[in-house]
Amino acid sequence: MKKQKTYWKGIEELTKSPEYLKYAEKEFPDYLPIKEGKMKQDDNSDASRRDFLKMMGFGIAAASLAACEAPVRKAIPYLNKPVEVDPGIPNYYASTFYDGGNFASVVVKTREGRPIKIEGNKLSNFTRGTKTPQAESSVLSLYDKQRFKNPLKGGDKISWEDLDKEVKAGLASAASVKLVSNTIISPTTLKAIEEFKAAYPNAEHIQYDPVSADGILTANEATCGKRMIPSYDFSKAEVIVSFGADFLGTWLTPGVFAHQYGQTRKLNKNSKMSRHYQFESNLSMTGANADYRQGIKPSQEGLYVATLYNLIASKTGKPQLSISSVESSEHLKKAANDLISARGKSLVVSGSNDSNIQAIVNAINDALSNYGKTIDTDTPVHLKQGSDKAMSSFVNQAKAGRVGAVIFFNCNPVYDYAGGSELKEAISTIGLSISTSDRPDETNTIVEYIAPDHHYLESWGDAQPAKGHFSLSQPTITPIFNSRAASFNLLAWSGSNVEDYFTYLKSHWEEKMYPAVSGFPNFQTFWDKSLYDGVFELKNQPSEESEDSEAVAFSFNSGAISSAISNSYSLDGSGIELALYEKVGIGSGAQANNPWLQELPDPITKATWDNYLTISQKMAGEMGIDFKESNTKTVTLSHSGQSVEVPVLVQPGQAEGTVGLAIGYGRTNAGKVADGVGVDASVFVQVKDGIRHWFASEGVSVEPTGNPYRIAQTQTHQTYMGRDFVIQETVLSEFQKNPSAGRHSPHIATWTSEKGYKSPGDITLWNGHKYNNHHWGLAIDMNSCIGCSNCSIACSAENNIPVVGKEEVLNRREMHWIRIDRYYSSSGDTEDKSISGLRELEKAADNPEVTFQPMMCQHCNNAPCETVCPVAATTHSSEGLNQMTYNRCIGTRYCANNCPYKVRRFNWFKYHDNDQFDKNSAMNNDLGKMVLNPDVTVRARGVMEKCTLCVQRIQAGKLKAKLEKRRPVDGDINTACAEACPTDAILFGDMNDPKSALSEHLGIVQEEKRKGVKNPRAFHVLEELSVSPNVYYLTKVRNKDLEDTEA
Amino acid sequence: MEITAPVEKATDHSHEPVTASVRKPLVTGGKTIHDVTKDICGPVEAAPPKTWLLAMGLSSTVLLVGLYALLMTLWEGIGMWGLNKTVGWAWDITNFVWWVGIGHAGTLISAVLLLFRQKWRTSINRAAEAMTIFAVICAAVFPVIHMGRPWLGFYWALPLPNTFGSLWLNFNSPLLWDVFAISTYFSVSLVFWYIGLVPDFATIRDRAKNKISKLIYGGLSLGWSGGAKNWERYESVSLILAGIATPLVLSVHTIVSFDFATSVIPGWHTTIFPPYFVAGAIFSGFAMVLTLMLVTRRIYKLEDYITIHHIELMNIIIIVTGSVVGIAYITEFFIAAYSGVEAEQYAFTNRMTGPYWWAYWSMMTCNVISPQLFWFKKIRTSIAATFIISIIVNIGMWFERFVIIVTSLHRDFLPSSWAMFTPTLYDIGVYLFTFGFFFTAYFLFAKFFPVINMAEVKAVLKSTSSKE
């Protein structure tokens, strides 16, 4: 021991009082790393002095930093830090999103106890990490200021106790009790409903779906003996035929289907891909991806399906349907031939709600022996079980005054059910009406009691999306308002003495699930594992129905169906027909008050903040409507007494003689964001024999009003002008001959090179950058990009992208960092660049081929933006990123002008804390701000911004790897867009790591000054500029026969 | 030298001394030296005429209206203008380049013509230089206010020592070159102008009858005594400054053109821009000088000093520069067609036939066709025709910059981003602000400063007078 002078801090130290000694060692909290390493307790060695200096240095630095910082408003430090929460470190919780239509097993990212981002749960074998834009944006709905803050009675606050008392009394005295809900997939909620029904024997549970699948359910009941929706597997299908089913965008489980479909569109290992036929009225996102697409009228659909059946039946020896066949469709014949040659490896689907059509579709699949291969009836999907007839009879009973009490269980039939307006009148006559919705909607404005449910991110819950697949929800935040789980309400009202819903849920799992599994020492282990994973799969789950699960023989009554089809469909309807559809963003309108979804450009029309009547180019010509630069006119759309004034959007690909209109708009009581946006199309939903149909084939009239209107589109130019330096595509047969088919390789003449021509990248004044460590890049497969825009929503959530509202989108100032460019083919000659040729190229073809091209900052190695910034606010990182220093930016916009990809976004106004942008709810109220990602700055007015390649995620991934003393590898880092992509069309990785998936995918080779790629499909957009982006695109390949390609 | 050629040929006495009495008189009306002093100092000393008050009232109203638009832009953000994600510059930079162009004539007249010993410049150089200075101030407004954060940008764009660590300017950026080019040009022009004013201030000082005038003009004249030493220094400084200013005339607009020429955008990425911009600047500058001179000449009755001969000579310069600009337009087209670059070809096809065809054809009509009318002597010696064409030329030159900036940006490489630009009231308002400022400043100058360089006019009075 060294001799040292001893200085006392005080008299206590000298006296070494026990009180002093107790605290002397605890100067720093336990969790600080001060005690790690060499320093030991009780010693006065050199190490302690060094550590002291370190701590002092840190302390001074921290203190001075703290002194510089502007005071943070309303930040309350933890008095007792929760064990699981570390400031700055996110926690992830598995959960489940289901809004009565869309389902996703998700992982919720929370920061300091606030959910801020929804990601897909890759552990789920049902959703496989995919999700819809609705699921992604649901986190913003959690922080909607307009949610109910209390239970309400007639609009006034009431306590839960009083509400329970009054409701119980009301229910007990009611002659009949109706519990109306969307499809319920939660086993525990279903159990609660059973208890409720036991307590109130006169109670009936009615399930309906905003967008019904009744047709499929009924058809399967007829053909397969079970009222269910089978599981479809598009990944095994080599030929896909869809009649109006937008299975990539909105039909049943679009994320799952997109994932499967994407696998059939990859061309890396083998040069095979699926062939996809689409017959539909509106140009859907799915139709845009089809190799062959034909526009048909809704009134023809039955005959098209039947004709396809007959074509196949004639070759497979099945009975023919006696209908008037479609003779003129070459596509139909081609599809039939392709289907027959791909028996057992094909899939035919239809979006119709007519059970006859669905029965024929089943028969086609049966004739093609697709059952058991691409269609799995043993794993039925539970997401849509609603019965149109049950709902329709409920509405009739309500109208007749035969309903004593009604509970609207998280549903909004006044808005989203076809007879909503009738129901609205009837509700006032019902003695007791209750809604459990957590926010205002059209139904709960007229009910007596509102018992607000938690948001799913605040509550416990479970779900069974398909047989054998279970998914759990857990609270990721304390309930923000005085809400209560809706399922618990049912228990409370049925007099159950359950303490809380969590206990109820857990005990249900203990009773039902745990006995069916093995390999867990006790229930708690099983529960913890299931909750941690969020999903749980029960293989060979016994069928719930008592009947034998033995495969029922396929039954198909061709005679009855022939006459039904012949009666309902005809080939020679001459009037205008209306086809209603769901938009990818807004869907059925349940989350319409979510500004992210409202501002998400529609994948096809690129329109935001509106619905509109899509009409064909021919019809527009007849009506004299010139749709240019978002300027249009409105028309009066009327059908059977209903009429609305709606703007027109001229849609290439719209079937001749049809018009399309999206549902989910025209909300009247959804909140500030959604109210008054668009028109309510649900008045045009037709109810025939209690079954809803989303089209009207007779008596539709469209009368121009001449009133001007502007639709806020993010892209107004339709075609790519034959520019092969932007879009490079080919057809499969050409690709098989030459993998670099369709590639455009620019070259420049030189005096020096022997061959005379060189690639632009070979001649450069740039010295190139040295990337000693990482070199990040992206590869975007234009062949598997389906245009779904999940990436765009994910980017908005991750990077705090402001919502700017319709007016600013009209001013072409939307802020999205990633956009999906959508180009239509033109009937013009792509080589003819004369003045008249260019005029032709500007016009989209009547039934165009569609190309999607995700476009974000290309992170150019020779970036044109970097050289022009006068203050060096945008610079190149040592890892290949083009980075933006917001603090330094003075906003000259020179960089944006000089960006050949036009991906830079300028903050024209202050979008946060500004009443003029109150629809940007994530930045304009204290509650909404909780959704902001604390890792990403909210940009100030006057500053330029753009895609950062999720630099915050890169940093987090690098730090994680560094702590584990290794290099980051694939999987440590992923951008939000790539993570959200259901088809894995976006691939992120390190191009310096030869083992990364990206390097292998692209075949990265290190050349002298730059990187080369060996993948023959890989190209740079605008290669001739030699800006050398770090984002590569892979050519689009259509599975079309060469002779069918348009000139 | 080509600009002087027509004069030389007209007289055909190029070999004779510059004092040749057969030259056309530069000042008519048989003015004596005293007449000059009286005519020029008169308006400075007299109460302002009604026409002046009217003009001042009008221009300051425009200034105030424009100031509102300017302040609203600063308060709310650049979003008040019609710009968008595709068209990041429009009226702001159009106006900037236009004003810089206008600011070219003054220095050209004073410096280049001084070096070439073109004595006819003496009647017009003072006003032209004043115009230059005000135009450059108007121009400088735009680079500052077009920034998203002008409160930071106005000094972050300067190479000032700072505490931001390694943050320093990006010397690769043409915008930074602009900062240096404009500020240098402005400083030199201002000094040049002021030096020229000193002897005239001394004249006014000497004639002043009240104390305040004496004090102010005394101060402004910096103790000028009119001695031989003073004059010798005056001459030397003028020559030196002319020597410094001459390259600046070329450099300013060359550098301004680099904003576009160094970029990658089709329609901007053009090596012809420097000479083309300089010619265009002289073209518009002379047109603006003519517009203002014709008005001043009328109001102050300076017909004897600014003669039809002056006007004709300036019109000849307009034909020459207008033709240079016209050839540049045609060359751009040829190069675009010859290059084989699709985007480039489209940019030029789009200019002619796209949605902004009207701007393009306005430019062609105003800039290429209208000045050709000056080939007719009757037109180039007509005051009314000159006045109208001078305004047309400036409209055309505004459109030239608009066409270059907006039509190139609005449809560049990726058709998905193609968009239109529509100006808002605030775009117009800010432009009005600079007009208001320019005219207010010019009218103040015309009232309180001698609008013609008395000292130099006196020097050419005798040698060119036809009398005695």
Task: List the topology elements.
The complex is a heterodimer of chains A (1047) and B (468).
Chain A: H1 11-15, H2 18-24, H3 46-68, E1 91-98, E2 103-111, E3 114-120, H4 133-142, E4 152-153, E5 156-157, H5 160-173, E6 177-181, H6 187-199, E7 203-207, H7 214-224, E8 229-232, E9 239-243, H8 254-263, E10 275-280, H9 285-289, E11 292-295, H10 301-316, H11 330-341, E12 346-350, H12 355-367, E13 375-381, H13 388-399, E14 405-409, H14 413-416, H15 420-427, E15 432-435, E16 449-450, E17 461-466, E18 469-473, H16 486-493, H17 501-512, H18 523-533, E19 535-537, H19 558-568, E20 576-581, H20 595-598, E21 613-615, H21 617-623, E22 631-639, E23 642-650, E24 658-662, E25 686-688, E26 691-693, E27 695-710, E28 729-731, H22 732-737, E29 748-749, E30 757-758, E31 776-781, H23 790-798, H24 805-810, E32 819-824, H25 835-842, E33 850-855, H26 864-868, E34 874-876, E35 882-884, H27 894-897, E36 905-906, H28 921-924, E37 944-945, H29 951-963, H30 976-980, E38 986-990, H31 997-1002, E39 1004-1006, E40 1011-1013, E41 1018-1019, E42 1031-1034, E43 1036-1038
Parallel strand pairs in A: 6-7, 6-14, 9-10, 9-12, 10-11, 14-15, 15-16, 20-24, 21-23, 28-43, 31-42
Antiparallel strand pairs in A: 1-2, 2-3, 4-5, 4-16, 8-13, 17-18, 18-19, 20-27, 21-24, 22-23, 22-27, 25-26, 29-30, 31-38, 32-33, 34-35, 36-37, 39-40, 41-42
Chain B: H1 5-11, H2 33-45, H3 50-76, H4 91-102, H5 104-115, H6 125-145, H7 150-156, H8 174-207, H9 211-220, H10 228-261, H11 273-299, H12 308-339, H13 342-353, H14 357-369, H15 377-380, H16 383-410, H17 425-448, H18 454-464
Helix pairs in contact in B: 2-18, 3-17, 4-6, 4-11, 4-16, 5-6, 5-10, 5-11, 6-8, 6-11, 6-17, 8-9, 8-10, 10-11, 11-12, 11-16, 12-13, 13-14, 14-16
